[in-house]
Amino acid sequence: MGQSTIHWVDEVGRGVGKVGHFLQREGLESAGGHLASFLPWYLKNRVRNVALPFEQNVWGRADGRAQMPRFITIKPTFRCNLRCGFCRYVVNGQVFGKSDYFLDNEWLDLIDEVAPHKPYISITGGEPLLYPKIGELLERIASHGLYATMVTNATLLERKAEVLMEAPPKIIQISIDGPKDTHDEMRAVDGTFEKAEAGLAKLMEIKKRKRSSSPLVVINSVISGRNYRGMPEMAKVAEKLGANVLNFQHFWFMTPSMLDAHNNQWGECFPVTEEEIGTTQTEGVNVDELWEIMKHVEKTAKIPVTFYPGLSKEELEIYYNQPEKMVRNRTPGCAWLQTAIFPNGDVSPCFDHVVGNIRDSSFMDIWQGEKFRAHRMRLAQHGAYSLCSRCCVYYRYD
Ligand SMILES: C[S@@+](CC[C@H](N)C(=O)[O-])C[C@H]1O[C@@H](n2cnc3c(N)ncnc32)[C@H](O)[C@@H]1O
Ligand code: SF4
Ligand code: SF4
């Protein structure tokens, strides 16, 4: 069996395994409403993933075309009310509103345009609940039957929960990194935990009142040297808050040497600077200890626990101790499956690499446009960038 066939079989196996895992751990009571609609969509996407090497190596190399995006990430604002030290938008100053912009009908037009292709819409930021028209955006997404997911620090959730529940996203990811003191310290603003707790309680109350299965509540907890020993306690916090799932997010590194390596190879067509990108690192993670803690939490938590990316112990060792080294070296699928769109309408498939703007052209023209295709062809022909090694999108195939 060839390497790529093994990869395909592995992908299919992993997909089936994950669905089974999800069914078993989620329990039909809480997940039933989701699974009925989620499963066909999930399986369709798995097939797309399995066929991805074909898409990359045939069209990808020839002219960089792609099928329709599987998901589109909308960042309605980069501004944020928190100052997390591990967040590159704090490091590069975006959270202070230095390039802020609120699009209006453009987001709605975008949703109308892409709706026939059924991508899911991932809403993040910055802090997306700072966007004044978040309710309208969610309503427009729901009106086309598209799935929305949202990542939020939840500090404004108590105020926005009613609006959100008019057209709830399928999944809401609430960022909480530990019990009160740890969370407030990591988020660098006192009172953050309590606000998120109150917001989540309000959301749960409305969800119950409306007998809605959406949103599925996932607590997303960043693992860093500061908090990893508190993961078992974090599981208890997530249980108490009533989360459906607890996801531990491995740290995304962006080190100066990754930027140097990238510029040495791609500086001509896609240069990156420390000021624009924002570097992030964590220290003090003992991988043997982290692994033991992960296994312990998985076994003892009363709600489903996932880790993203899912890594073996050997991979975890490389992930934390050699951030510049690829964990699974392959052509990243990101450029064929997704893109992000910034608050000013810039379409950016990779960090700050802009390939068009939805205020100037239709999304589809940009998706199959010259700059986007050039980006895909670079990846298809040369493989991963150094920036890919700890980029969240690199691992996002499910
Ligand atoms: C950039 S934030 C935007 C949404 C919102 N402001 C929030 O914090 O939930 C999206 C997610 O990325 C996580 N995140 C930010 N920096 C990270 C890093 N260096 N490593 C891992 N996760 C990170 C946040 O905790 C959050 O869950
Ligand atoms: S809340 Fe989110 S966007 Fe804001 S600083 Fe923290 S991680 Fe960054
Ligand atoms: S750094 Fe790599 S994985 Fe991340 S978005 Fe860019 S090409 Fe994709």
Compact description:
This protein has helices at 3-26, 28-57, 59-62, 88-91, 105-114, 134-143, 157-164, 180-187, 192-209, 231-241, 256-266, 274-277, 287-300, 313-321, 334-337, 363-367, 370-382, and strands at residues 71-74, 120-123, 148-152, 171-175, 216-222, 245-249, 305-308, 338-341, 346-348, 356-357. It is of the alpha/beta class and 398 residues long.
Q: Taking all residues together, what is the mean pLDDT?
A: 90
Strand content: 5-15%
Percentage of residues assigned to helices: 40-55%
Each distinct ligand: S-adenosylmethionine, iron/sulfur cluster
* Major pleated sheet: 10 strands, mixed
Rg over CA atoms: 20 Å
Tell me, briefly, the overall form.
globular
Summing up helix and strand content along with how strands pair, one would put the structural category as: alpha/beta
What is the number of helices?
17
Oligomer: single chain
How many runs of DSSP E, i.e. beta strands? 10
| End-to-end distance | 24 Å
Placed side by side, the strands forming the largest sheet appear as 7-6-5-4-3-2-1-8-9-10
The parts where pLDDT drops under 50 for at least 5 residues are: 1-33
